[in-house]
Amino acid sequence: MPVGAKADSTTSSPATGGGKEQRVTKQRLAVSAALDELDDFVSTQELYRILQNQGASVSLATAYRILQSLADEGLVDVLRNGDGEAVYRRCAVTGHHHHLLCRSCGKAVEVEAPAVETWAARTAAEHGYTEVAHTVEIFGLCPDCTARKAAGSL
Amino acid sequence: MPVGAKADSTTSSPATGGGKEQRVTKQRLAVSAALDELDDFVSTQELYRILQNQGASVSLATAYRILQSLADEGLVDVLRNGDGEAVYRRCAVTGHHHHLLCRSCGKAVEVEAPAVETWAARTAAEHGYTEVAHTVEIFGLCPDCTARKAAGSL
DNA sequence: TTCACTGCAAATGCTTTGCAGCGCC
DNA sequence: GGCGCTGCAAAGCATTTGCAGTGAA
User: Fold this and answer.
1) Summary mean pLDDT of chain A
2) Which of A63, B43, B80, B145 could share a disulfide with B104, CB 3.0–4.6 Å?
3) What pLDDT does residue A95 have?
4) Mean of pLDDT over chain B
5) Which has the closest alpha carbon to B63: B40, B75, B47?
6) Statement: the CB of B27 is under 7 Å from strand C
7) Whole-prediction pTM value?
8) Which residues contact A37 (CB under 8 A, 6 or more apart)?
9) Residue B62 CB lies within 7 Å of the nucleic strand C
């Protein structure tokens, strides 16, 4: 998971309009639309595959550029998954949720965690941190895989 | 593709014979010693440079292998910095805890989250998941960087 | 002696970038 | 018509892996 230059990332400035102007292209619309239909986090690679399946003509490089661009504008949230890949989610602070993932079959359950949200915000504030975001993932064996394992077939 | 295909640290108890055994090599000792002297998180690349400056003969590939090995054994903490690089730190083993990371300077604060632990365990149980583990990271701007940003120097 | 560990270098896979042409404003 | 955006392909980089020699037990 390269993301080489550390020097960067000072570019996060305009949360509200102004500044540079973004042209509305079909690629940009396709990416934006795809993000709208997804509630989950997606890596750039995953989003690229989704776009291809939809028949949208967006190259991988462009997908990277558009997602970075959206992130810089604050239109999407960027986080890192467990493998260090950058993952994106449409910025919608309401309806925020986390995931309970099966370590074996990958099945995911969406869970809400109001208590965790509150805790994260309060903890960050106590330490004087601002512009806070957080990641929470729970890994385990789902009921099926637990049974499979107990039966010895895993 | 499997989602959380992380090696399930089976905590190889060296007590009574059994599984694989780790040989004590000078490279392993050098890495371990270097980690002891550091309080901060270091990436593999950084640790490799440190070892080179100390004159220790540890190749980059070996540094990667040793750190992964230590992480699998639970002897070091692993997490991801803002750039997605894996960073390691000697595990103070005083118990399970999480981190509040500065997105700009990387400063880390250790935080405990009993409420989150409880929530994670209960949520997993409600859905029938077993062998549960979880990750929680909070990202934000630390007080210093918040001030720096406000002053315009960030 | 044995076999895990090491080092080297090639390989891998995600992400970025240079350049020329296209399309939105 | 200008200039940013896109695509393609090549470059870049952290990380991983194959293989044979080395050293710990």
Assistant:
1) 76
2) B145
3) 58
4) 77
5) B47
6) yes
7) 0.65
8) none
9) yes
